[in-house]
Amino acid sequence: MKENWLSRYFQFSELNTTLGRESLAGLTTFISMAYILFVNPLVLKNAGMDPNAVFTATAISSALGCLIMGIAAKYPISIAPGMGVNAFFAFSVVIGMKIPWQTALAGVFIAAVIFFLITVFKIREMIINAIPQSLKLAMAAGIGLFIAFIGLQEGGLIVKDPSTLVKFNQLTSGMTWLTIFGLIVTIILMVRKIPGSIFIGMVLTSIVGMIFKLVPLPSSVVATPPSLAPTFGVAITHIGDINSIQLAIVVLTFLLVTFFDTAGTLIGLAEQAGFIKDNKMPRVGRALLADSSSMLVGSVLGTSPTSAYIESSTGIAVGGRSGFTAVVTGVLFLLGLFFSPLLAVVTSQVTAPALIIVGVLMASALKQIEWDKFEIAVPAFLTVLGMPLTYSISDGIALGFVTYVITMVAAGKWKKIHPIVYILFVIFLIFFWALFVKQ
After folding, report:
1. What are phi and psi of 170, to 5 degrees?
2. Which pLDDT tens digit goes with each residue over 31-40?
3. What distance in Å separates the CA atoms of residue 75 and residue 296, rounded to the nearest whole number?
4. Dist CA 128 CA 113 (whole Å)
């Protein structure tokens, strides 16, 4: 009886799928993105946040996003804290701008509220259409380079140098060789198209690390979920801290990066699964509502913004077509709450290969930029290059928007610039002024 109800609700017959196939797809998706349970706490630990609390917040916000996506939007697309925006949170905002993580989390909350409202009032299309496609692509690629750069640093492959700023590290440390092992293994798995390559690579790297005593053995495998007390509600109590143009830019960046990352991922996955009809994605409002709700709850619990995950493509590839796929993934994230002791095994050398590989995947957006148009190429290039070189995602985005207006006006194409982009141009000029005056 229950299975019949499930079949009817998730339209198994109409989508030519089965309960078994959807369950397998959900498991495949979870395995492909389970690394976020361990990578996200480690990234946000750099911001001074309690990794155990972040682990719990990551699992719950991911589960919530997946369940809403599956039940309400009925898509086989899963949600979790986004790679890239968590690096922006930790390295650009907290470390780079010296903003307390509590204030940064309040910025995530405000961005989530705005995201939720523009979704409810259906003005998301206007915002998406306002930002040039070239800058959207450059933002994704630039974040990819930034993440990879962080991975190379965290893994000990790249170190600072007084003459050249950075250089390749001497391979004398066992921890660095552990990173190299993990990177090679993960690359091979990715090339072989093995589902869950990143997660499997982390597991194998951890095992090798424990064998050679480079990684500590976990005290246990299963335990009660860690407390949320260190991070729960902090975002709300620090809303009053968002009181400067610099912090307003931070909120705007959280919103832009998450918004466009989710929109682009949703469209790409919907194309893969064959959901796009007449150049439109049915129930896209519900899909964005799932993400914005997850982001809102996640900020209250204590994690960086959530986003639709491209790893959902692995579940779609094995036949996932209904929302039940996302429901299964969500349930597995809840079960993952009980495996927090494994956090001790996941060191920065274990997660570094994952960061580098995710960076490679995100950099693929470069191929879609119109490099033959100089007025497009310059702002795109500065956006991409600016993020790793300034160690700031927001600085890279600001460089791109400011340069885009200048090059388009110089090319006599000022009428093609959306009014919203002109507004952002002014905002980012003020941002640079505030940045330079502060220095």
Report:
1. -70, 135
2. 888 899 999 9
3. 20
4. 17
Segment (H or E) for 67: helix 51-68
Q: Give the angle subtended at the CA of 81 by the CAs of 75 and 87, to the nearest 5°.
A: 140
Extents of the domains making up the chain: 2-366
Q: What is the DSSP string of 377-429?
A: HHHHHHHHHHHHHHT-HHHHHHHHHHHHHHHHHHTT-GGGS-HHHHHHHHHHH
Q: Do residues 31 and 196 touch, judged by C-beta distance below 8 A?
A: yes
**Residue type present at position 400:** G
In angstroms, the CA 42 to CA 101 distance is 14
Taking only the tens place, the pLDDT of each residue in 211-247 is 999 988 888 889 999 999 999 999 999 999 998 888 8
Residue whose pair of structure tokens reads 């109800």 in the numeric block: 5
Residue with tokens 């390749």: 168
| Global confidence as pTM | 0.79
**DSSP codes, 199-259:** HHHHHHHHHHHHHTTSSPPPS-S--PPPP-TTTTTHHHHTGGG--SHHHHHHHHHHHHHHH
Which among 328, 368, 367, 343 is positioned nearest to 32, based on CA atoms? 328
- Residues 143 and 393 sit within 8 Å (Cβ to Cβ): yes
- Chain centroid to Cα 161, Å, comes to 30
- DSSP letters, 315-327, are HHHTT--STHHHH
For 81, list phi and psi in degrees, rounded to 5: -55, 130
Write out the DSSP string of 121-146. Answer: TT-HHHHHHHS-HHHHHHHHHHHHHH
Asked if 321 and 14 count as a contact pair (C-beta separation under 8 A), the reply is no
Candidates 325, 255, 317; CA nearest to 27 is: 325
| Distance, CA of 430 to CA of 345 (rounded, Å) | 44
